[in-house]
C-alpha cells in the first residue's frame, strides 16, 4: 500500500453535495475536513451543507419521487444489482477508504464491503417480491385488495462506525421499495457514502433518487428537513439520546420512523459451554471494529466455575493483538474514532478498577499521533460499575460472574437496551430457554457475530424501532393500502 494509492483514491472521491444528480459545493461555499484517526491528519476537504442545501436536497428527492415509484421493480432491482457488481470490482478501494476515514483494520474493512454489498444484492432481489393480498370478505359481499406502496421521500441518517454497511442497509431497501432519499452520513466518515453515491450513479440511478448531504451541523440542517411536510420517513442509526430527540421531531409530522440505536449486549457463558468456541466468539463480539459496534458485547457474564479459565484464554489472545494504523499488514486493532472515545474508555476502566475490578491486560490510552486505546480485559467487575450500564464503544472486555441460570438471565436483562445477546451453552434446552427469556431483538447462540443482510436486524426496548435487512427490511419503506370493491 503506498501513499500514492491513497492519494489517488481520495482524489477520486467527490468533494461536493449530491443534489439532483449534480455534485456541487455548499451554497455558502463552506467546507469541512475529514481526518484519519490513526494519524490525526486531514485526508480530504469536502462541502459543508447548510439549511438551504438541505432544502435543495429534499426538493430533488421530492421531484424524483413519482417517476422512481413508477419505475418497474425489476428495473429498480437491476440498478441495485449493477451497483453490487460494481462494488465487487472496487472492493479494495472501498475497503481502503473506510480504513482511512474510520480506522478499522483493512481486513475488517474488506469484511464490511462484503456485508455492506450484500444489502445491495439482497434488496435487488426483494424489489420484485413486493406483493399484496386479494380475497373475498367474510360476508361474501366485497373483494378486498391489500397493496403495498412506497412511503415517499426518506431522510436517512447514518453513523460513523460502519460507513458502508449502514448506508447500504438503508439506501438499498428504500430504492427497492420505490422511495427517493436524502442521505446524511456522519461528518467524521462521509467519504464512503459519497463514493457509494457516485457508484450508484454509474449503475444507472436516475438523478435525484439519492441525494447526499455532508455537514458539520447535523442538528440545524436536519431539523427543517424532518419538519418538512413533504418528507414521509426518517430512518436513523446512531445513539439512543439522538434517536430520542429525532423521534420527538418526527412526531410533529407523524413520520414513519426506523431507529437503530445503542446497545449493551450481554455475552453469557454457561458452565457447559464449549470454552474454545466461547473465546473465539468473545473476541469477535468484543474486538470487531475495535469494539465500536452497536452489537459489541458489552458485559461478559460468565459462570464462576469457568470464569478464570475464560479470562486466562481471552487475555492470552488479546496480548497477541497488533495495534496500529489499519492499512498496515497484520494490524488487528486500529485507533478509536476520536479523543472523546478514548477518554470514555479510559474513564470506564478507571471507574471499574476503583470499584474493585482487576486489570488482566491493557487499560491505558496510547500516546499519539492517533487516538489509540490498549485492548483491555477486566475481571471481577463489580455491580454498580459504569461499564455495566454504559455502551463502552471501545476495546474493553469486562467480565462479571454468576452462579445460577436465574441470576444470569437477571443480569443479562438488567439494561434498558435490547439489541443483541450472545449465549454459549451446549444444552439445547437451555439455549431454547434463553431464546424465550432474553430481552433482545437478536441472539447469537454459540455464535459471536449475527449480522446478515438476509436477517431482520434491530432491537427491543431502547435499542430501537423497526428492522433492517431480511424480508422485513423493505417493509420499513412500504405503506399498506386496503381497497374494497363490490363482490
Ligand atoms: P450519534 O452521535 O447519534 O450520530 C449518529 C448520526 O446522527 C450521525 O450522522 C450524526 O451526525 C447524526 N446526528 C447527531 N446529532 C444529530 C441531530 N441532532 N440531528 C440529526 N442528526 C444528528 O451516534 P454515533 O456516535 O455516530 O454512533 C454510535 C452510536 O450508534 C452507538 O450508540 C451505536 O450503538 C449506534 N449504532 C447503532 C446501530 C444499530 O443498528 N442499532 C448500528 C451502528 C451504530 P454528526 O456525527 O455528523 O453530527
Tell me what the structure shows.
By secondary structure, this protein is α/β, with parallel strands linked by helices. The chain folds into two domains: 3-261 and 463-484, Aldehyde Dehydrogenase, Chain A, domain 1, CATH 3.40.605; 265-452, 3-Layer(aba) Sandwich (Aldehyde Dehydrogenase, Chain A, domain 2). 40% of the residues lie in helices and 22% in strands. It has 15 helices and 24 strands. The protein has helices at residues 3-12, 51-70, 73-89, 91-102, 106-126, 165-177, 191-202, 218-227, 240-252, 275-287, 307-319, 339-354, 405-413, 428-437, 470-473; strands at residues 17-19, 22-24, 31-36, 41-47, 133-136, 142-150, 154-157, 181-184, 210-212, 233-237, 256-260, 265-269, 297-303, 358-361, 365-366, 372-373, 376-379, 396-402, 417-418, 420-424, 442-445, 460-461, 464-465, 478-486. The strands form seven sheets. It has a seven-stranded mixed β-sheet with strand order 14-17-18-13-12-20-21, sandwiched between helices. A six-stranded mixed β-sheet has the order 9-8-7-10-11-23, sandwiched between helices. It has a three-stranded antiparallel β-sheet with strand order 5-6-24, with no helix packed on it. Strand 7 (154-157), helix 6 and strand 8 form a beta-alpha-beta unit. Helix 3 (73-89) packs antiparallel against helix 6 (165-177), helix 5 (106-126) runs parallel beside helix 6 (165-177) and helix 10 (275-287) packs across helix 11 (307-319). It is globular.
